[in-house]
Amino acid sequence: MRRRDPPDDDPDEDEDETEEAPRPAPRRRSSHRHRAAPKAWTDPEEPEPSDEDEEDEAASSRPHRRWRAPKGEREPVFYRARDSVFFEPLVALAVIVLILVSLFAYTQNWPPLYVVESDSMQHGPTDQVGLINTGDLVLAQKVSLDGITPYVVAMTRGYTTYGEFGDVLLYHPYGISDGTPIIHRAIVYLEANPDGSFNAPELSGLPCGTASDWVFSANSTLVGNGCATTSLTGVLTIRNVGWESVYLHVDLSAVGSTSGFVTMGDNNIAGRQGIPDEPTLTSLVQPGWIVGVARGMLPWFGSVKLLLSGDSQEVPAQSWEFMGLTIAGFVGIALGLHYLLRAEGVEDPRRKAQEEAEAPEEEPEGPSRSWRHPFRTVEDEEEGPRGTPKSSHRASKPSSHDAATASGGRPRPRVGRRPPRKDDDSEEDL
Fold this sequence. Notes:
Elements: H1 11-20, H2 51-61, H3 87-107, E1 113-115, E2 137-141, H4 151-157, E3 160-161, E4 164-165, E5 168-171, E6 182-192, E7 198-199, E8 216-220, E9 232-241, E10 246-251, E11 260-264, E12 269-270, E13 273-274, E14 290-298, H5 303-309, H6 317-341, H7 349-358, H8 378-382, H9 390-395, H10 400-406, H11 422-429
Parallel strand pairs: 10-13
Antiparallel strand pairs: 1-2, 2-14, 3-4, 5-6, 5-14, 6-7, 6-11, 8-9, 9-10, 12-13
């Protein structure tokens, strides 16, 4: 029994002792939150992971996020204009605008192109490449009067355009600009005199009259031997004109009273006679009526305009064939350039590197872990091929630690019961 101490007689002394004694701190209740987390089991033979391995493992456990450099360190992305869906239409429009601007700068005329609507300049009924045929597009370049070379002058210089001597004029009859201009060749320029006669200085020096190789024949009030070049009256005759070498007769009394060009179409021929525009179509072509001089052409493609307007009867059959072949050739070249420019070698290497860096990571084709039969154990998987006795395999069977490691996982810890302590044995005996 525990002995009780006698009470003290002095109650004040007990109160002082009670006040001076410190009060014990309350004992905190244990909680799982304050316990240290259990450490994962590690193999003593396995090397300790380094800091880099821990960082890689932590990064692999986090969801994948694309890394981006700081804003100031990012490299610019160089995109190709041809990646846009509007690239081809805009390029086609730009090419058309560039062509039209270039043609206007060259011809100084608007529109710079005119469609040949008749066969008056053809050399025969068929289409001949390099000549002016029905359905061709002709460029009309604006030039001064001195820049025009007529037939009688060009034959002495050897100057030819579209298969014959001299320049081809585009003009509006009487200066009326309604409709398509006439496209015919300039033959000779005549200067009008107040008395109604004409001067033809360009005929000076050419064989004339009764010469065996005469080129022209003209009379005047002063000279009647056929070699006059001033004060011409009556009929002016020029020999060996055009691709069929015809005679051209111009009635000077019916061509008006103003200076201008005598013109004729290369194919305006009746028998052995050429048919001049004067006076059948107009009087002498005045410089103010001229739209321009033919300086280049685009063959065949004007036939589409004539076909739409219903005036394609005079277009040669060869023109449609040549146009079809040309279109097919242009389409083939365009497709070839298209696929050539889409090759990887044309791509900007800086942009290609950026695309590869931003491309998503490819997942492996097969599963991440090898498939294991649900009814096969590790021992079965460690067995050799079929027919090998199990006993022979068990003789060389690796340890459980090696088997677990070979199967691709972390070895399992060996868990056993804790051996009893001596104190426990004594308590059980009691």
